[in-house]
Here is the input.
Amino acid sequence: MTAFAELNWQHPDVWGIVVGRGLMTIETRNEQACDTWLAAHGYERIDLNFATGISPVVAWLGEYLNWEEQFGYVLRPESRGLDGLRDGFEFAAANLVIKLQSFEVAWTEDERWSSGFLSIISEYSLQQLALGRRFFAILPVADANSMLIGQTIEGLGIRFPFRFPGNLP
Here is the structure.
C-alpha cells in the first residue's frame, strides 16, 4: 500500500510530506485555499493554537492522546519532556494534518522545545509514510520573512511557503 498514487509537486500534501519531511509553511493568505484542498482530498485536521504559548497545547495533547491511560500520569501543561511526548505521539487517522497556528510564539517562548516538537512531527510523518498513510504539519506564516523560514530541524531547513497555483484540481 502506497501513500501516494502519484507525486504531484503542486499538491500541498506532496510538498509537506515529501519535500518538507512532514513540515510545510503556508502564507496566512492561502490558509482557506489550503483548508479547502485538504478537505476535498480526505484529510482530517487538528488545529493547535500556540497564540497563548506552549502550555495550553501540551495540556490539550495530554487529553487528546489519552496520556493518563497510556502512561499512568497526567501530561501537565508545564511539561517540556520531548522523549515522553515522542513516545505518546500517535493518531488514529490515516490522512491527518496538524495546523500549528501562531507557532512563532512557541518558537520565541522555547526554541529547544519547539524545534524538538517539529522533529517529532517530522519523524512521525516519515513513519506514517512508510505505513502508507499521510501525516504532516502546516505552519501558517505571514509571509516568507517569518522567523521560522530557514530554521533547521534535525538538520533539515524549514522551507519557504508552498505556492498555491490558481484552480487546483
About this structure: The two ends are 23 Å apart (CA to CA). The first strand starts at residue 23 and ends at 27. The mean pLDDT is 92.
